[in-house]
Amino acid sequence: MGTAGEREYYDLWLTRYVPAQELLQNLSRASVEDLMPSAGAYVPIDAPSLAATLTIAEYDVTVEGGIPQGELERSLDELKSIGTLSVEHKGKTKDFDLAAVLPKRPEVRSEDGRCVVRVTVRMSEQGSLRPDVFVRAAIAQPARLAVTRVDLLTDDGGVWSRPL
Fold first, then answer.
1. Cα–Cα distance between 74 and 96 in angstroms, integer?
2. Alpha-carbon gap, residue 107 to 121, rounded angstroms
3. Coil vs helix vs strand at 154
4. What pTM did the predictor assign?
5. Which residues pair with 157 in a beta bridge?
């Protein structure tokens, strides 16, 4: 999908009970090293799906193109202060309320001569703002972007946490 991921989750339905530790070992043996599960847990059958539970995603967007960190920070702040970002996708235009979909100010750091922007996005049934689209809209020059989702979180009344 064009986005690397860390700390990914997935639902697994079983046809019979297998102790969680044994299941984790079996999944680890059947997985390639980079996709090997590191934890597992049973959840109640009537619990919401992960897609419904995980509503906060954190991304690192690496920006290559020589944009100074301070300039990038100002551009991101200016775009967010506008309040709305219109995105066209597959012939349809969607307007994102940036205060609602970006629950945290983007953080910019310098790393190996590039800028890395940590973008936190609220996910919902109505869709999510892609972090690369937000960053690209803020910069006024061509730049190569690489996106990595670094965390998926639940939001329990403003308290963010990992499900496992």
1. 20
2. 13
3. strand
4. 0.87
5. none
